[in-house]
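#struct-queue
[09:14] JT: dropping the first one here, sequence first, then the C-alpha cells:
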Amino acid sequence: MARFLQERGLTLSEEKTHVTHINDGFDFLGFNIRKYKGKLLIKPSKRNTLLFLRNLRQLIKKHATMSVNDLIKLLNPKLRGWANYYRHCVAKKVFDYVGHQLFQALWRWAVRKHITKGRQWVARKYFLDRNGYWRFHGRQKIADMDCAFNLVEIAKTLIERHVKIRGAATLYNPEHTAYLQERKLNKQSRNSWF
C-alpha cells in the first residue's frame, strides 16, 4: 500500500493511520462502520452522539432563564441538522436515546425554572401529552392568534434508505427510460405534498 501511494507522490501519516479489522469497526466522519455477524452496519458513532448530547445539555443549562419559545428556536435547528445528517444510516435506536436524554434535560430545566410549583403543574405547562408521549412545547399570542412552538421530535425522524441504481442503467439508453422514470417518480412522491 505504501509503495502504491509513493509512486503517486502520497504518503500515509503514521500517527493518524490505524489499521483495524472490520469486525472491530472504526469511526469515520461521525459514523461507526462495523460488521456485526457478517452484516455491515453504519451507525452514528458513540463519541459523536455523546458530544452532541453534552452540547445540548450545556445549551439548556446556559439558557436557564430563557423563555420556552426562544429555547425551542435554539434547539430545533440543531436537532434537525443532526437528525438529517444521520437519517441515512442505522440510527433509530440512537435517535430514541437522544430523544429520551433531551426529554430528561428539558424536564430538569422546567422543574428548576419553577421551584415552587408541583411536577404536575410543570408537566401541564411545558409538555403536551399525546397518548402517553410527552412533547415539549410553548405558546405565544400573535395578533389574537394562539401560536404553538413545538420541539422537533428526533425519535420520529424517518430513516431513509438509498436504493442502488442498476449498474447498466444510463440516461442515454432508451431501454432504461421506464426504469429511471419510475425511480424519479418514487423519489418525488416521498417529498411532495400530494
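[09:21] JT: and here's the second one, same format:
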Amino acid sequence: MPQAIHIINGPNLNLLGSREPEIYGSQTLADIETICRDAAGDIDIVFKQSNIEGELVDFIQMAGRDAQAIVLNPAAYTHTSIALYDAIKAVGIPTIEIHLSQPAARESFRRRSFVSEAATGTISGFGADSYLLGLQAAIKLVKASP
C-alpha cells in the first residue's frame, strides 16, 4: 500500500481567500492544496473539505482505513465536537491538528479544543504555513513507522 496522508478541512474553509483575510490570509483552500501536494513528495495526498460534522467523521474513518496519518483543520468544530474526538481516537493513526490562526489568542470560546485531546500534536498561528508544518510532522511520523 502506498503511503498516504489525508488532509481534512472543516467548516467555512472553502471560503478561504475571501473570509476575514486579516485573520485567515488571502490564499484559497485550492492554493493550500497545491502547496501541500507539491511538498508531499512521494506521499499520496487526499484533500477533503466539508461544512458538515458527520462528513468530517466519515473522512476521518476513511483515513483510518486508507492512510498512515491525518492532518486536520477542524475549524469551528475544534471547540464543540466530541464526534471528531471520538473518530480520531477510534482510527488510531497519527493526527496533526492545525489552525491558520492562533485560537488561544482569540475569543475565549476558542481556547478549548476537544480535538487537541485526541490529536498527536497541534500547530497553529502560522497561516497557510500551518498546513506545511502539519504535513511535515505527519510525513516524519509516517516515515518513522515500520
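[09:30] RK: nice, looked through the second one.
[09:31] RK: The chain is about 40% helix and 20% strand.
[09:31] JT: good to know. The radius of gyration is 14 Å.
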